[in-house]
Amino acid sequence: MEKARLPSVKLPAEEPVLRVMPMPADVNAAGDIFGGWVMAHVDIAGAIPAMRRAQGRIATVAVNSFVFKQPISVGDLVSFYARIVRVGRTSITVEVEVYAERNPENPVVVKVTEATLTYVCLNPDGSKREVPPPHAAPCPDGKG
After folding, report:
1. Is 18-121 a CATH 3.30.70.1450 domain?
2. What is the pTM of this model?
3. Where are the chain's structural domains?
4. In the chain, N or C terminus with fewer CB closer than 10 Å?
5. CB hemisphere CA count around 91 (13 angstroms)
6. Which pLDDT tens digit goes with each residue over 112-127?
7. The dihedral of CA 10, 92, 86, 134: what is its sign?
8. Per residue in 44-90, pLDDT tens?
9. DSSP 8-state symbol, 71
């Protein structure tokens, strides 16, 4: 039985923060890409703009929402787009959207996942620190 073709969507205009192709070792018992694989990559993708904004060490403190919209398959080109949506005193909240480009012979792009995660800024000793002002000079010790 052939799968119904989903309408293709457009990828966001900006560059993805992460792009990867899952392999056979990444599948679950049903043959789709394991949700934990997706979650780990979403966390990495979300951490990239958070770390840049924090100008140093961060840690994930919350997964505020996580929605799996479509399965991902081996061979899909998976693109992760992340943007900061909130900056608090010590925290940074990031939205991540994930798209899969499928079937190179007859290309289709589908949105597969969306998530919102919150990261906290940390000192080298692991204690919380304030988010520096935008474009502030990096910490003197270079460790955040």
Report:
1. no
2. 0.87
3. 18-121
4. N
5. 14
6. 999 999 999 999 999 9
7. negative
8. 999 999 999 999 999 999 999 999 999 999 999 999 999 999 999 99
9. -
